[in-house]
Amino acid sequence: MTDGTAQGSKVKDMSLAEFGRLEINLAEVEMPGLMASREEFGPSKPLAGARVMGSLHMTVQTAVLIETLQALGADLRWCSCNIFSTQDHAAAAVVAAGTSKVFAWKGETLEEYWWCTEQALTWPDGEGPDIIVDDGGDATLLIHKGYEFEQAFEKDGSLPCPSTTTNEELKIVYRIIAESIQKDPKRFQKMVARLVGVSEETTTGVHRLKEMAKQGKLLFPAINVNDCVTKSKFDNIYGCRHSLTDGIMRATDVMIAGKKALVAGYGDVGKGSVQALKAAGAIVYVTEIDPICALQAYMEGVEVVLLEDVVDKVDIFITTTGNRDIIMAEHMAKMKNNAIVGNIGHFDNEIDMAGLLSNPEIKRQNIKPQVDRFIFPDGHGVIVLAEGRLLNLGCATGHPSFVMSCSFTNQVLAQLELWNNRANGKYGKDVYLLPKHLDEKVALLHLGVLGAKLTKLTPVQSEYLGIATEGPFKPDTYRY
Amino acid sequence: MTDGTAQGSKVKDMSLAEFGRLEINLAEVEMPGLMASREEFGPSKPLAGARVMGSLHMTVQTAVLIETLQALGADLRWCSCNIFSTQDHAAAAVVAAGTSKVFAWKGETLEEYWWCTEQALTWPDGEGPDIIVDDGGDATLLIHKGYEFEQAFEKDGSLPCPSTTTNEELKIVYRIIAESIQKDPKRFQKMVARLVGVSEETTTGVHRLKEMAKQGKLLFPAINVNDCVTKSKFDNIYGCRHSLTDGIMRATDVMIAGKKALVAGYGDVGKGSVQALKAAGAIVYVTEIDPICALQAYMEGVEVVLLEDVVDKVDIFITTTGNRDIIMAEHMAKMKNNAIVGNIGHFDNEIDMAGLLSNPEIKRQNIKPQVDRFIFPDGHGVIVLAEGRLLNLGCATGHPSFVMSCSFTNQVLAQLELWNNRANGKYGKDVYLLPKHLDEKVALLHLGVLGAKLTKLTPVQSEYLGIATEGPFKPDTYRY
Amino acid sequence: MTDGTAQGSKVKDMSLAEFGRLEINLAEVEMPGLMASREEFGPSKPLAGARVMGSLHMTVQTAVLIETLQALGADLRWCSCNIFSTQDHAAAAVVAAGTSKVFAWKGETLEEYWWCTEQALTWPDGEGPDIIVDDGGDATLLIHKGYEFEQAFEKDGSLPCPSTTTNEELKIVYRIIAESIQKDPKRFQKMVARLVGVSEETTTGVHRLKEMAKQGKLLFPAINVNDCVTKSKFDNIYGCRHSLTDGIMRATDVMIAGKKALVAGYGDVGKGSVQALKAAGAIVYVTEIDPICALQAYMEGVEVVLLEDVVDKVDIFITTTGNRDIIMAEHMAKMKNNAIVGNIGHFDNEIDMAGLLSNPEIKRQNIKPQVDRFIFPDGHGVIVLAEGRLLNLGCATGHPSFVMSCSFTNQVLAQLELWNNRANGKYGKDVYLLPKHLDEKVALLHLGVLGAKLTKLTPVQSEYLGIATEGPFKPDTYRY
Amino acid sequence: MTDGTAQGSKVKDMSLAEFGRLEINLAEVEMPGLMASREEFGPSKPLAGARVMGSLHMTVQTAVLIETLQALGADLRWCSCNIFSTQDHAAAAVVAAGTSKVFAWKGETLEEYWWCTEQALTWPDGEGPDIIVDDGGDATLLIHKGYEFEQAFEKDGSLPCPSTTTNEELKIVYRIIAESIQKDPKRFQKMVARLVGVSEETTTGVHRLKEMAKQGKLLFPAINVNDCVTKSKFDNIYGCRHSLTDGIMRATDVMIAGKKALVAGYGDVGKGSVQALKAAGAIVYVTEIDPICALQAYMEGVEVVLLEDVVDKVDIFITTTGNRDIIMAEHMAKMKNNAIVGNIGHFDNEIDMAGLLSNPEIKRQNIKPQVDRFIFPDGHGVIVLAEGRLLNLGCATGHPSFVMSCSFTNQVLAQLELWNNRANGKYGKDVYLLPKHLDEKVALLHLGVLGAKLTKLTPVQSEYLGIATEGPFKPDTYRY
């Protein structure tokens, strides 16, 4: 995630690090879970002795996470998990404070990206981390691939060969590992031996981990932070509710009231999106494949339609599906002039960018960064946000700090959970949900600053319900 | 659930059965899932040959369920699961139509209640049902107790002795079983042998079943209908959202706009309740023990407080917790004059009725049925709805038919699932969730009447997502 | 307004007057403006010496108004302004308390109705009232007609002749006046001479007054209470928002969530109705003739359609127009089976009841009081609420007490305004809005009980704005 | 209104005029009232022969207004009404198209500003305009002052003397007039003689006009566009609802959900603001001086408090009052760290900027343009948006085009009304509301693009209501 606005408008008489520090300090107030973690755990330094490596967008919010882990005693090295997502002022401030080594800058090449990842995994003594904060699984991938190829090398002296793959990134990974084996053929095996575990932030990363676990190839414990309630519901519903209309407005200044909007998908992201659009005064339709979600839409007064049936009367189209091929060039050919099309789901293939870009009859008119108008042969144009990528990141600033604080506090508790249980065998080579009571603790750490007062169960009530007074308060199957 | 209003206002020149038929016909339009089931499954009579026994409130909505099961070929006997809940006109109409034998009337004694249950379990040939629709688990209990005592009798000739229990209902159950054993010492064992399974409607019933399964005492398969998404979320959120303010208004005619309301508990019932009260213009507070739910409340703009801190300024108090001792007489002593106190959670011990009724200094002033004013020594009064029991049932007519249709369509599909798999060993002596695809089917059957058009996955999308085009569309852990 | 529910369920061991007193006491808590008036003005008895005659629905809420006027010193006589609207227990309680003479009962004949009006206008000494609280203008009408015919009689000895009018009510009025003239040919002229003025409650009454004033025939000052902000907006928006869904639910128990609803008219009543239906989860459409109101509908995310275009897919039709012929029998012929049709606008001719009732091919099926199903030749039925009359009155209990308190506090202040200025010529023979500062005072008197704290202008602010610290705070043209 | 964002991000290979044209074309789609005016009136050129002078922010939206007036035949000259509000690319595009003469650029000095105004008022033949579009009344002021001083000069040869006023702007105005009189002592008198009238956009301008009319000094007819429903309600409620949270988010990226927000004032701007903040998930409080507005707040579930009572627990403070001294430095001294303070009311004196800036103990930390943090001696900071000026303009892009289209279509109709009635004496030297039917027409012209279908009154209905089928549909006192 880049934050061009903030950088563009930074006060001119500050250094990059000073500006980063200012923004970090402002973000701290909006990240109460992390600050409360510092307060609660800081004094006892529970991560003292732990080498923590992070591969996660090097933003202002992540800086607050990094500095929290450091306050808990960790010895840190960090890289970004996306070539564009580093906020240089955030990186500069962290470096200036000496909180963590940082290998990240905005606009890395893929070569540079994997070099950064490797550096972040390598402590000065040549060894690796004890625990990893991963986002998307690239750090985990490099270690697993390294381990696999070291074993192959041991067996038959073979080295990974970039030409065996067409994937640009894998070519680079192979090259790095080949070089590594030639220097130290045990390096990744030692790294694995030391590793206590990883906590993974995203759906994609968790999916990779589960595949490895299923195949029996996972080399160390993994905690799935992604599916914590305080991560998934908060990111998806409340985060998107905040940032969807924010992105649309910053990009187009369009009045949403009175307009017709179609939200493709009524999962958590769709639910947050519909709530935001209705609140702004839009007439909202939903498309769904899942009848349960469709029925939920009706319960909130939202009609479930086929895209085809409304494509020529809707003003704003938003995809939230995680699926592909939702809004195709053929659909856009039938839309009203200046219909707005944006994606807040997952990949840019929810919208048929390929179809738009490959058709020579469709002209692209760039209006401003992240806002393009595609003009069809009949003269009507369609405004596509963020080139089909996540519009809340591309056209606004993504999830607000408070939402990221929920997510990152889960990371802190996951790191503590892995480290505290490093010696007792609680976690094997599998993927674990963060225990419910820690999910609840994340919520708890965010309530104080909002002024909440929680009721406590009496002993009689506790016994009546069969629930301990300190929780966990719900079974794992509870849907919230 | 009694529906005194409807009965009280029934047109005088109709017979009870005619009036019941009129109301059943009206309800059918609001129960599209059941009607769609008739249309889809009716022609093939998949329940032909199945003896279905039901123990579930004999209301108009249940009549639509009964007639659906009959349309699918079932041979039916029915009783109510609550001594007060029968709507006599509904029972009369079912009997008049010859759809099912019915053993139920409004205002049974406990003796009569268990006699009805026994009759419903006993076909003219002396044998029992193939499948059971249970609500609260009383039919299941009678069979399990009968089976247990028959085995004891076989072993040592002992008979159940009412004096061994202080529970009034159990005394009756023991008496019935003792008589039964004396007539036919194998009756319940034969019943169990025949039984394909039970589908259970409620939290309480599921809890009992799980306890039995855990102890290895469950004698036949059980399907947990209660935790289907289309049951739990629809009952709890949308059903209560509908009926909470309905109940308050019918009972008190109070203007909710501008008033301060406190909702104890922000689970699904609490979420529906808060939504209804906010929509009516109230200033709403929540009390919670669970920090995750509390944080969700804030995300919807609702403050989480302690009851003690607001007890003297709130106008309307609603309990939704499933817990006990939520609003005590001491709290009510501090409330504003004519504060309203009601429960839409579970049992009447959410409100300290015992404390109100046992204190001679607190005077009870009955305003109208289900509405009492308790006057404290200082002269202020508190209006308690439905004597602390579920106010949406006591003061209004409970969940609307559409919500019950979701719940009951799950029952129909559960009965089919049990019956269709009776011979293949799919279900053992355990408690099962209804498979996700059936939960989704329930939703599907309710969408047509609302005018929904569902999008279908293309083969490419299906492969991309790893989801079959006909579903199930979500993992079991999905929270909706 | 009749309140059958409350009466039907009244506690059996109370007298009618005791039950009325109980309900009056409960209503007082919800009518803070009236109670605050008693507190502020009661001690000084500003209406001492004033004879106040009221012609306004003799309900529980009106009883609180009556007892407020009495607490301010008035000498009262009261009748109802509708043959069905008296709540007998309310009347009984007022009579038992000796607060006012009351001439009203539920179910008067038209003859009885006008007899009651005449009695209420006639003090034991034969003279009339000093001030009148009128609702619909019948008391005012009787006086004006009496005055007119007395003058005609003086001129030429003629008496009003019932056969000169086809209007049933006017025939009765003429008869009463003819008798009166024969007893005392100056009675109404003396009444007019004494009269300080009238405060009128309704649109219809105000319309009549304005016509008379335009023609120069108005005989005494009139204050238009109907168009106070605290009357019109509160009655129309908030009152209907409360009572529309209340009425629909009590009548049909239908689940509104997921249903399509059409609201004809987006004036204040329409705005309240749409808000209520959207809040209940309906998909709402509006029909409008006025483009400004139509554009307001879009700003709230509501589509403006033609009835014809959606008549076959809407589930609930509500008229709010004050116009006639909105939903015709031809429309109902095209509706879905069991579509619900109700009116919360003005007269029952918003719905084509005549068309339904006069067509022998349309069968009427009475479901319960105030709920009829009209069955069309093709077999589909349409459920009509309250026989096309105001469904919130017919199927629920009308506006809640709090809303009536706003309206009635305006009446109290209007009565005081008339009485206090009886001698200074402030009000001539014209129709006046209640001064803005009194409208504001009505609001003020309702804020205390809600816990509001108003900010006071500082002298500097007061001068800056050119607004006195005690108000009025807005120009007369302000739209709120 | 400046639009730094758009300019900052403008595509680099376009000229300023090309970029302006692109933005104007995009805005046209969002300004359907203006485009519909072109379609309806364009062919007949009703403004042919009319010289139209405009003094109104030279933005993209205004460009669409200008080009509409030109399409109707007007001969145009334009200046801005604020030294900062010109969007240079909009001005460049209008000039490039030759639509109007434009005298405006971003960042004028006051001297330049009044020079521009004078130029815009002066056609090449030395004469003035026939009609004026004014915003704030500066063009009108210059003419009135010129006329007044010309008459004084005639009488006694005196010239306006800048030293007689301390007002910086008036000094300049005097200088200009003094020079003008020396060149042509009849210039402004001739201008007045020619002038058909002015249509005024704002509250301030209308206030000035009414003062002049009251004193008998108004020299030509004026139409008050500001108080049209389609201007005032749309600007204030819907415009602010759109742009308030937009501004807060762009400025601070703060998550509004869960936060406590206080809105000072519950007039139309306050109502829109509260709606936006509640929709975003805030817990909202209101402060009010007017009891009617306060009671309306309660009806929407919003508590009315004193600022003093909540100042230490609120996170976001918004002023909407039009009053001064609402949030003082003393208040800010008691706020939470990083509380946000912004104004969307009127002038920057709603917030005590003077108090902040003049206190040497309070440090100012500039975070980014239009966002400052004021640090108090105890270390806590308060974030002030847009230096206390309108935050929706300063931190976002003000009202969206659709809202401006309503406002500007009123201007077009007002100009037509003045011009069409120039010879018939319909308008004298007074301030007139735009006739209701034109207000309705503005709404009508915006409905087509939204897909609205308006119902037409039948002749029977028209007679029943006493309303012409083509409107106007409401009395002038209707509050909407």
Automatic annotation (TrEMBL), chains A, B, C, D:
* Xref: InterPro entries: Adenosylhomocyst_ase-like_sf, Adenosylhomocysteinase-like, Ado_hCys_hydrolase_NAD-bd, NAD(P)-bd_dom_sf, S-Ado-L-homoCys_hydrolase_CS
Q: GO:BP terms for this protein?
A: one-carbon metabolic process; S-adenosylmethionine cycle
Q: Which UniProt keywords apply?
A: Hydrolase, NAD, One-carbon metabolism
Q: Which GO terms describe its molecular function?
A: adenosylhomocysteinase activity
Residues bound to NAD(+) are: 202-204, 267-272, 288, 344-346, 392, 399
Which residues belong to any copy of the S-adenosyl-L-homocysteine hydrolase NAD binding domain? 236-398
Q: What is its EC number?
A: 3.13.2.1
Top-tier EC class: hydrolase
What do the Gene Ontology cellular component annotations say? cytosol
Tell me the domain of life: Eukaryota
Q: Where does substrate bind?
A: T59, D135, E201, K231, D235
- Provide the coiled-coil residue spans: none
* Cofactor dependency: NAD(+)
Q: Which Gene3D superfamilies match?
A: Adenosylhomocysteinase-like, NAD(P)-binding Rossmann-like Domain
Q: Does the keyword 4Fe-4S apply?
A: no
Q: Which reaction does it catalyse?
A: S-adenosyl-L-homocysteine + H2O = L-homocysteine + adenosine
Which pathway does this polypeptide act in? Amino-acid biosynthesis; L-homocysteine biosynthesis; L-homocysteine from S-adenosyl-L-homocysteine: step 1/1
Is Hydrolase there in the keyword field?
yes
Q: Which SMART domains match?
A: AdoHcyase (SM00996), AdoHcyase_NAD (SM00997)
Family designation? Belongs to the adenosylhomocysteinase family.
Name the UniProt record assigns to this protein? Adenosylhomocysteinase
Organism of provenance: Fonticula alba
Please name the taxonomic classification of the source: Eukaryota, Rotosphaerida, Fonticulaceae, Fonticula
